[in-house]
Amino acid sequence: NSESTITYNGGAPLGALAGILSALNNSSIMGSIGAGRAIEVRSPAGTFPTDVTLTISTYNATVPLCSNAINVALRLDVAPLIQPAKPIYLRASYGDAELLGIAPARLVLMRYEPISMTCVPLSTTFDTAAKTFTAVLNHFSLYQLAQAPVATVAGTARVFPNPYRAASDGYVTID
After folding, report:
1. Is 14 exposed, middle or buried (0-12, 13-18, 19+ CB in 10 A)?
2. Could you say which residues of the chain have pLDDT below 70?
3. Distance, CA of 2 to CA of 51 (rounded, Å)
4. 53, 63, 91, 132: which one has the fewest Cβ atoms less than 10 Å from its Cβ?
5. How high is the pLDDT of residue 69?
6. Long-range contacts from 121-129, C-beta under 8 angstroms, 24+ separation
7. What Å distances lie between residue 46 and 22, 49, 128, 149, CA to CA?
């Protein structure tokens, strides 16, 4: 079974999008936020122990959360406050001008970690023909597109989440 919410905002504040992600079924939320940014979130069955309401909104990041970031930023909030047990997939549209001349191959979606004030790069792919990017998420937070940092030596690599919790984190990101 699969469930979808296709709506302008699902009862969320103006410019945001909200919908239900089912605990028992594959589910998706599709619509637009802000000034027309197309959004889709897909969640496999069993990602949550109970149905959750996800609200997706733009985030004005004129002061970048992440270094080398551009002002393409999103906020994902969930109620009840439960993090996903399986990866979920976010697809969003972008305009060429928003990339500030940076090649999509050099950009990744970064998750902002407010406690450590760091940014975690996520697996991100760009479809330049459709003008969309898709990222794999395992945590609800603030997100911003940024230039991927280039490590110059192996000793500067970062591993997230740290500490890793096998019961809830799902996978490890190596930056």
Report:
1. exposed
2. 1-14, 61-63, 149-175
3. 13
4. 63
5. 85
6. 121/146, 121/148, 121/149, 121/173, 121/175, 122/173, 123/173, 128/104
7. 8, 7, 32, 33
